[in-house]
Design goal:
By secondary structure, the protein is mainly alpha-helical. 65% of the residues lie in helices and 6% in strands. It is built from 48 helices and 10 strands. The strands form 2 sheets. A 7-stranded mixed sheet has the order 2-3-4-1-5-8-9, with helices on both faces. It is flat, with a radius of gyration of 33 Å.
């Protein structure tokens, strides 16, 4: 049953029919589906098994390549005589070509299935449609409509046949096994169309993969009724699907009535069944004609109020400078629409500005919008050039404020603090700026002073900015001042109060960038306070905020959520947040994203993705400023790789970067990395390095605004140096209360090593087992392997009951995350539905589903649905 991918449910149904046949009961079955969908392969497997179990099998085809199908059957009389002697299975394929003679034989055999052990199976494609086809199909008591393979099966088939599976290949093939395997017999399908239908489908192919019939009629200037016949033909031939219809499933008549199994899609639209077919149709038009059609369709869709990304897709495909209407349309759009798709927005705003016929006010509006988009995308040189031009040419106070703030932010991001401070002074001297913008500039000045290591000066400017903002009634300026004050008041409760006040002052759609900063810091404050449950509630709101501002602008918030999930031990969710981040990001965020992903995979000894993320992160030079601030995970992951290679000296050299005392602002999170460096230093017997670590952590702990975790790191490193098991156990309890699972396991590991070294074997074994269980709960096999290696020479080995051994297959083999996904899939939920309910990305859900099917020995999610019903 496992040879045919993704068809377990269908094979089971037909095998049940064969079993009933062997018990003396006949039946008529029907298998339908487009060319290449696997009808013949399904019959091959079922009938081969039937023949092996003593069933007499006869096969025939009504296809045009078969001049006479009747000799294969031997005539109805011979089939009936054979059925009187024992079970007979008759399969007739390509019944869409059936003539009256074959139809008569079919009906006669179908009538005999009620009294003889005769199984009659027919298969048919969508075209050509024989006059008698509906009558032939009506004889069937089991109807199987083969639809596209599910994604897991499609991926496996691609890997089997091509060695890899890409999203482009999956989209092109549309789940059709023949196209997945590389057969490109599309011309024959298109040649069967009427000229009118083929011409219409060429235009529809330019319109898009999915479209409404009304939409197609509108862009072509025709009435929908005029398209009905051609669209119906395309649907009947399997070239178009109607979304919302069941694309695959089973129908049958049973004792409990009719049933159908399948998954509905988004309702109300037409979609090309295969990307290959759509591209083949579009390629029949010249390049210049396609460009002209894209321009025509874009304008018509804009008049209809179509979605931004749909219109923008046509503008990008058309190329060249935008027509004047494009600029006016972009200026009228709510800016939130552009923020939600910043890469696309940048691609259409640029050409729109190239139009020479734009009015001045429209040009300035587009420039200001593009500056904000480019700054968020990290395309700083172009953003700065546009900002300078806007300051030179525009008298508009709002646009000038946008330009000044963008220029200051870009300089600060690149750690050019002197230039940023100079720009603040220039901006404050601008007589055209409103008081609220002046207050924002004062807040930026406070941030620069903080980064320069002048907290007193920073506080004075932040307090002044807050007063000026409140006097001007500018919630955004007030929120930015509170953002700086939250950094200054690093005691988490006070910081949280500033952040909540800043958020409360903002209207729902006001200042999205500032809202993201405040939310980002709120996540950090909840983490610092050890409020895991509150953190999780706040993190669950992250996707909604990111959806409002676009994934590029929301990337820092996604990274903050991932960082907290790493600390609190929710590693699968952390990886999912990271997977949602776009590829094109400022260097600092890319370093943070790839560094954290590399570290998570390294802890789990998933070295292929770990090496890939390391390579991506290390492409960016780690100098100073934001890149250095975000580089902790990347450096730590690189050090883990060095430890794995037994190059402890290199690992130590990497981590000693955090011992620098001249970068206080950039070293503020070194408490996360220095305990691991202490462990390496002890193994290297480097006393000087050990003492430097202790002094660095003590320096952090002496700060009046020291975080609880900085205090804990100072005590931990001192206890490591002094072999103080009592303090190590106390610190493990601190981490436990705080919810940091990894660090609790680390402190317990350090305790176990020292207890074993001092001969306290039973206490050491208990601490060892406790540490291993903590690491194992995270899937941190790298750490389990290390603690095993450290304790083994001291006479401590893991017992058989230290960890519950998970079997390799069956439901018991599933992880907690996989079990949650499996339970929802078993109820019939789609991957997007599961993703929404569990707050995962569809890609992560698909990965889980593939692992679940492999562990349970299933070939499709239908097996899981049936198993769930039994369970």
């Amino acid at each position: 049953m496992g040879g045919l991918l993704g068809r377990t449910a269908e094979i089971t149904m037909l095998n049940d029919a064969v079993l009933r046949l062997r018990l003396g009961h006949g039946q008529v079955c029907w298998v339908g589906g487009e060319p290449g969908i696997g009808k013949s392969a399904l019959l091959d497997q079922v009938l081969t098994d039937a023949e092996g179990n003593g069933v007499d099998v006869l096969r025939a085809s009504a296809g045009p390549h078969i001049s006479d199908p009747y000799p294969a059957l031997g005539g109805a009389d011979k089939v009936l005589e054979a059925a009187k002697k024992g079970p007979v299975a008759v399969a007739v394929e390509d019944l869409q070509y059936a003539d009256p003679t074959l139809s008569a034989i079919w009906h006669r055999l179908a009538a005999a299935t009620g009294t003889l052990p005769l199984l009659l199976i027919g298969s048919a494609g969508p075209v050509p449609r024989a006059l008698h086809l509906d009558a032939l199909r009506a004889e069937a008591t089991l109807v199987i409509d083969l639809g596209p393979l599910d994604e897991a099966s499609a991926i496996e088939l691609l890997v089997r046949t091509k060695g890899e599976a890409t999203q482009a290949q999956l989209a092109d093939a549309g789940g059709n096994p023949r196209y997945l395997a590389g057969d490109r017999s599309i011309d024959r399908r298109l040649a069967a169309l009427t000229p009118e239908t083929r011409s219409l489908l060429r235009l529809a192919a330019v319109l898009g993969e999915r479209f409404d019939a009304d939409e197609l009629a509108a862009v072509l200037g025709r009435r929908p009724a005029a398209l009905a016949d051609s669209l119906d033909e395309a649907h009947r031939t399997g070239l178009l699907d109607e979304t919302g219809a069941y694309r695959s499933g089973l129908r049958g008549k049973t004792e409990t009535g009719a049933y159908r199994v399948g998954r509905p899609d988004e309702p109300g639209r037409l979609t090309f069944r295969h990307g290959l077919i759509r591209r083949a149709l579009a390629s029949e038009l010249s390049t210049s004609l396609r460009s002209a059609l894209h321009r025509q369709f874009a304008e018509a869709l804009a008049e209809r109020g179509a979605a931004f990304d749909t219109i923008a897709g046509h503008l990008r495909a058309a190329g060249g400078p935008g027509a004047p209407w494009v600029g006016r349309w972009l200026a009228r759009l709510p800016e939130g629409v552009l923020r939600a798709a910043p890469e696309v927005a940048a691609e259409v705003l640029g050409p729109a500005l190239d139009s020479s016929a734009l009015p001045t006010d429209v040009r300035e509006t587009l420039s200001a919008r593009l500056i904000r988009i480019l700054t968020a995308l990290g395309r700083e040189e172009r953003a700065d050039d546009l900002a300078q031009s806007l300051l030179r040419d525009s008298p508009d106070p709002g646009h000038r404020g946008t330009a000044w703030i963008a220029r200051i932010a870009i300089a600060a991001r690149n750690n050019e603090l002197d230039r940023a401070a100079g720009l603040v002074v220039e901006g404050q001297a601008d007589p055209l700026l409103r008081p609220g913008v002046q207050a924002q500039l004062r807040g930026r000045e406070a941030q620069i002073l903080l980064r320069r290591g002048d907290p007193e000066g920073s506080r004075a400017k932040a307090d002044q900015a807050l007063r000026e903002a409140e006097a001007a009634g500018d919630a955004e300026a007030a929120g930015y001042a509170r953002h700086v004050l939250a950094h200054l008041d690093r005691e988490p409760l006070r910081a949280l109060a500033h952040l909540d006040a800043g958020l409360a002052g903002l209207a729902a759609d006001e200042a999205p960038d500032l809202r993201l900063r405040l939310l980002n810091n709120r996540l950090a404050a909840l983490n610092n306070l050890g409020r895991a449950d509150e953190f999780e509630v706040a993190a669950r709101q992250v996707p909604d905020h990111v959806a409002r501002v676009g994934v590029a602008r929301g990337a820092s918030l996604l990274l903050a959520a991932a960082m907290g999930c790493y600390d609190f031990g929710r590693w699968d969710i952390a990886l999912d947040y990271l997977a949602r981040m776009p590829e094109e990001l400022p260097a600092a965020l890319n370093v943070g994203r790839h560094g954290l992903a590399a570290m998570l995979h390294a802890h789990r000894e998933e070295w292929t993705p770990a090496e890939r993320h390391l390579a991506e992160g290390l492409r960016f030079p780690i100098g100073s400023g934001d890149v250095r601030i975000w580089s902790g995970y990347l450096i730590a992951a690189d050090a883990m790789r060095a430890v794995t290679d037994r190059d402890l000296r290199r690992a130590a050299e990497l981590l000693t970067t955090w011992l620098s005392s001249d970068a206080e602002f950039e070293n503020r999170e070194r408490y996360m990395w220095l305990p691991a460096l202490m462990r390496i230093a002890r193994e290297l017997h480097d006393r000087d390095l050990e003492e430097r670590i202790v002094e660095a952590t003590a320096e952090d702990a002496r700060r009046p605004d020291a975080l609880a975790m900085q205090l804990a790191a100072a005590r931990l490193c001192r206890a490591q140096l002094d072999d103080d098991t009592e303090t190590l156990q106390a610190i493990a309890r601190v981490y436990e209360v705080h919810g940091w699972i990894l660090m609790r396991a680390f402190a317990t590991e350090e305790t176990a090593v020292r207890l074993a070294a001092s001969g306290q074997i039973e206490q050491a074994r208990a601490a060892f087992n406790d540490s291993v269980r903590g690491y194992a709960a995270l899937g941190a096999t790298w750490d389990v392997r290390r603690v095993d290696a450290r304790l083994r020479p001291l006479g401590i080995r893991r017992g058989s009951r230290t960890l519950d051994q998970r079997p390799e297959s069956g439901w018991a083999a599933l992880t907690d995350a996989e079990r949650r996904v499996a339970e929802l899939v078993a109820t019939g939920k789609s991957n997007p539905e599961v993703a929404s309910e569990l707050f995962l990305s569809p890609r992560t859900v698909q990965t889980h589903v593939s692992r679940i099917l492999r562990k349970l020995g299933y070939t499709s999610r239908m097996d899981l649905v049936r198993d769930g019903a039994r369970r």
